[in-house]
Design goal:
- By secondary structure, the chain is α/β, with parallel strands linked by helices.
- The protein contains 16 helices and 19 strands.
- It has an eight-stranded parallel sheet. Strands 12, 13, 14, 16, 18 and 19 form a six-stranded antiparallel sheet that branches. A three-stranded antiparallel sheet has the order 4-6-5, with no helix packed on it.
- Strand 18 and strand 19 form a beta hairpin.
- The N terminus and C terminus are likely disordered.
Length: 576
């Protein structure tokens, strides 16, 4: 009988995860593309920061239609990044430093060059035909012509979600790029093959997985048409795909087949676009044995309308309400993942902060809020430096398939090219994919060659060399916050309580555990703000542990953390 993982395995409550996007982190061979050898050379940086886990975006063999999220072999490394031996070496290096390695698991879809799909499309009677979603065209439609698709779904990367195959006269489903056909998880053989692959990586020493769009693996087999929003050509997939009918069954089966019985700490996190608090409780309830935590998207959609390209003015009050909703919603059951940025999001300092005069202050404020909520923080490379969005000038400056496709589709439908470009500058995934800024040299210390994406011009001022070990820097602020999580159990396990919920500039909350209380106050704007009497009284018998002022007026974008024990001040080292 195998053992089942329990809440006793929840070491990740006090951990901090750092995401590496390999193409853009560090290039060791001078070809302009980051690689595993480059990552290994930069581990001192992560150790100094104090992170516990590295999440590695895909390094598997891939045609790179979606920069590695279109995988053609799940059990090897693309020569672009190195070899399987290099990955083993990275794993060994991390373990020797007390850190863990989590791999990106992309199993909603494969590349169309994966051997499974090559077989599947070879004929209608191939044994792997049912490993993917193949369907005949709509009755009355013309095969291969617009309107002939099996249903009206649109791809997340623009255009229809179906690609016609001339050889077999049927369509295959791709929720993302046409080179990313969706696996059919209704087929037990697909699930068994994925489980076997995951066990292979765990046997190799990997410490868990971040599972890409995992709440989309269950689709309603009827594949009904979706609602068409005004001004759009295609229907929305909606709940037919998101949190689909068998999703919890599939994840419980995966947990039983892959993770139960593993006698070492693991981290299992699912990316779940569109998930609700109620669904997240189901995914992360430890008694259900599905995943440890999920990535929800609600807090990174507060500045958008009906789509990510419909950019709205940022309102801190909306963000505060969303974050509080998730803090309270998962307070008793489940667990939050905490993040601002990742490989799919623009830089938060440019988005919710001030990437101009107050870049440092706003980056530190955003870090304070991130690290001190209840949940496991995830940093994306460059967060610890306060990296910003890139100043894109034209569509030729963009590489991301989602962004480029959207531009051409939107312009073809009559939208103003300048307005479309403005939305891309604000929201494109390319903002996260510019090279890591290690120093002020021409290649930013990322490469000695020509970088695959241009380096942000501000790297001369915003870089690791100018921040590591420098008091008051964004890096040192993150380091102090991570250390506080490791030092003080209240950060990992304390309750969350929102303060001054109606204030239009302040985001303030407490974390409390066993008589210990942290009071977090943040002036989320570019103007000085007086502390309300309620907060002054809350902090008057406390010790400032992060921050550099105890005035009753907060400077623009200033954040502070106070600590007290049962009303009696207890001194911890201050900094940040």
């Amino acid at each position: 009988m195998t053992a089942t993982r329990t809440t006793d395995d929840a070491w990740w409550r006090s951990a901090v995860v750092y995401q590496i996007y390999p193409r853009s982190f560090a290039d060791a061979d001078g070809d302009g593309i980051g690689d595993l050898a480059g990552i290994r050379r930069r581990l001192d940086h992560l150790e100094a920061l104090g992170v516990d886990v590295v999440w590695l975006s895909p390094v598997y063999p891939s045609p790179m239609d979606d920069n590695g999220y279109d995988i053609s072999d799940y059990q090897d490394v693309d020569p672009l990044f190195g070899t399987l031996d290099d990955l083993d070496g990275l794993l060994e290096d991390l373990h020797s430093r007390g850190m863990k390695l989590v791999l990106d698991l992309v199993v909603n879809h494969t590349s169309d060059e994966h051997p499974w799909f090559v077989e599947s499309r070879s004929s209608k009677d191939n044994p792997k035909r049912d490993w993917y979603w193949w369907r005949p065209g709509r009755e009355g439609g013309v095969p291969g012509e617009p309107g002939g698709e099996p249903n009206n779904w649109g791809s997340f990367f623009s255009g229809p979600a179906w690609e016609y195959d001339d050889a077999t006269g049927e369509y295959y489903l791709h929720l993302f790029s046409r080179k990313q056909p969706d696996l059919n998880w209704e087929n037990p053989a697909v699930r068994q093959a994925v489980h076997s692959m995951m066990r292979w990586w765990l046997d190799r020493g990997v410490d868990g997985f971040r599972m890409d769009v995992i709440n989309m693996i269950s689709k309603d087999p009827a594949l009904p048409d979706g609602d068409v929003r005004p001004g759009e050509e295609h229907g929305q997939v909606g709940r037919t795909v998101i949190d689909g009918p068998r999703i919890h069954e599939f994840l419980a089966e995966m947990h039983h087949e892959v993770f139960d019985g593993v006698d070492r700490p693991l981290l299992v996190v699912g990316e779940t676009p569109g998930v609700t608090v109620q669904e997240a409780q189901l995914y992360t309830d430890p008694d259900r044995h599905e995943v440890d935590m999920v990535f929800q998207f609600e807090h990174v959609q507060v500045d958008r309308g009906v789509s990510k390209w419909d950019v709205l003015p940022f309102d801190m009050r909306v963000l505060r309400n969303v974050l509080t909703h998730w803090q309270e919603g998962l307070a008793d059951v489940g667990w939050n993942s905490l993040y601002w940025d990742n490989h799919d999001q623009p830089r938060v300092v440019s988005r919710y902060g001030d990437d101009g005069e107050c870049r440092v202050e706003s980056a530190k404020l955003l870090a304070t809020i991130l690290h001190l909520q209840r949940g496991t923080p995830y940093l994306y490379q460059g967060d610890e430096l306060g990296m910003t969005n890139y100043p894109f000038a034209s569509i030729e400056d963009f590489d991301d398939i989602e962004s480029v496709n959207h531009f051409h589709e939107a312009v073809a439908l009559g939208e103003d090219p300048a307005a479309v470009l403005a939305a891309l500058r604000a929201m494109s995934r390319d903002n996260a994919r510019t090279p890591m800024q290690w120093d002020g040299s021409p290649g930013a210390g990322f490469t000695t060659g020509t970088p695959w994406r241009p380096v942000n011009p501000n790297h001369r001022d915003v870089n690791a060399e100018r921040q590591v070990g420098v008091p008051g820097s964004v890096f040192e602020h993150h380091r102090r916050l991570i250390a506080l999580r490791h030092e003080d159990p209240v950060v990992a396990d304390g309750d969350f309580q929102l303060l001054v919920p109606d204030h239009d500039r302040l985001f303030a909350f407490t974390r409390g555990l066993d008589g210990v209380e942290l009071v977090v106050v943040a002036n989320f704007c570019g103007r000085a703000t007086d502390l309300p009497v309620e907060l002054i009284r809350r902090c008057e018998d406390a010790v400032l542990v992060i921050g550099d002022s105890t005035d009753t007026t907060l400077r623009p974008w200033e954040s502070r953390v106070y600590r007290r024990v049962a009303g009696v001040a207890v001194v911890l080292p201050s900094g940040g």
